[in-house]
Amino acid sequence: MNATTLTEQQRNTSTIRRNKKGAVHGQSGYCLMRKARPKARLGDGRGKYFPIWYVAIRKPGAQQLDTSSTNWFAGGATICEACLAPEVKPEARCNCTCQKALRAAIETELLAATKALTVTLQEGRVEQYLSLHQRTNRVATATVADVLAAVEGVRDPGGGWLQRPGPEIWKGKTWLAYRAALLRMARVVAPAKPETARLAEVLTRATVQRLQCVAQGVATPEELNLKARLDCNGGPNAVLRNAKGLFSVAACQHLFSHLALPDLREFRELPSLPSPVTGFVPWEPDVWAEFVKRSEALREKNPTLWAINAWLRRTGVRDDELLRARRSWIEVRGEQPALVIKDRGAADSILKQGKGRRIGICPELWAMVKDLPADAFLVADGLPKTVRYDLIYRDHCAFVAQFIPDRQKRNHELRMMAGSLVYLSHGLEAAADFLGDGLETTRNYYATPLSASAPLSAKAVDWTA
To answer: Is 54 inside any structural domain?
Structure first.
């Protein structure tokens, strides 16, 4: 029979509450409990039950401490008759002398429990904790799958679009890095099905600290080494940096405005761990000389690969810039031709820092391309884009790897070497202009320190010598 009377409805509600999971057991024996507030003001016929539910903190073996939002009861503590009067306001009740022992007990227990409960939540039990006190009308945040669909779209079985992709605001490689970072964080919350994890659980300090703990091989955030520049810190730092880039202000406005996002202010301010400064390490002179010698030998063996090598080695252009560069990018002023790197509409928006540059090219490179049509590519013109891509990103990288097998970005090493050579001969500002980067970036990542080529000594600053 359906419950129609108020008594039956209350009885059914009580049964549901009793059957609901009521505690999350945490570190050091503490647990979070959810239970109905006890009876109050017995005998006055009013306010016997309160609809508010609250969290109680308890440690086995110790006296239980129940704290409500108004701090009326704690472990059965007695409250004076004046505070029980219905007309007494909460402000006056809190100033009463009977509340001193209550507040002291609460503060003592909370101080002891804070650390243990923090560890509990950081161990991935946030979902359990939220289930104890979240309201039924709470708006759920979007899932990882919602974010992926907003960027990539959703196809139907017939090949059409159930949901069209969002506007393209990143390059393909950038989105792949952002996507991998989001899924990496989601696996901390939902290892089996990361796409189902909600952003409110993923984009948190606890998730980031868990990744950092795994990287450093420690169990709790308190054990993290926050001072040393450890090599293992690079992984979680990259994940955090890419996740922040994914949920930038611009991305949230253009891609995720229709999604229910959590408050991202705290997440955007999370600090990274100290990591080693990976500045440019100059090539050994004999290794560089052998590389140049072997590169010139490609002129007869593989002219296309030699052209790629010459452009990268002599101009310091990036791989993507060389892949896109056309004959029309070269401008001649007087007798000096220069390769102009700048944004050229939506198809060739290639600047990373928003700073264009002009790179003078040698007569040999100019002779190779000056008679090409304006729309011809500078290297491997006439070949499919996939073939040209493989020649630059794979074949030439494999050639460079013979000389620097311990480094990852092989073609980029030529850009750094070219910038360092300009720095040594013409100074830091010239190197920054040549590379199209800022002074700090050039100094930290591309320029060879002067002391590496000519170590300084006390004699260099001894004005009496």
So the answer is: yes
Is residue 173 a part of any domain in this protein? yes
Q: What is the DSSP string of 95-122?
A: TSTHHHHHHHHHHHHHHHHHHHHHHHHH
User: Mutual orientation of helices 172-189 and 144-152 as an angle, nearest 10°?
Assistant: 170
State the CB neighbour count (10 A cutoff) for residue 291. Answer: 21
251 and 156 assigned to the same domain:
yes
Cα gap 378→339, rounded to integer Å: 10
What global pTM score does this model have?
Answer: 0.56
Residues with Cβ within 8 Å of residue 49, at least 6 apart in sequence? 36, 37, 39
pLDDT in tens, 44-80: 444 443 333 334 444 444 444 444 433 334 344 455 6
Structural contact between residues 359 and 339, judged by C-beta atoms closer than 8 angstroms: yes
Three-class SS state of 54: strand
The DSSP line for 232-269 is GGHHHHHHHHHHHHHT-HHHHHHTSTTS-PPP-HHHHT
For residue 3, being part of any structural domain is answered with: no
Please tell me whether residues 319 and 447 are part of one structural domain. yes
- pLDDT for residue 239: 95
| 445 and 382 within one domain | yes
The DSSP secondary-structure symbol of 341 reads E
> For the chain, how many structural domains are there in total?
3
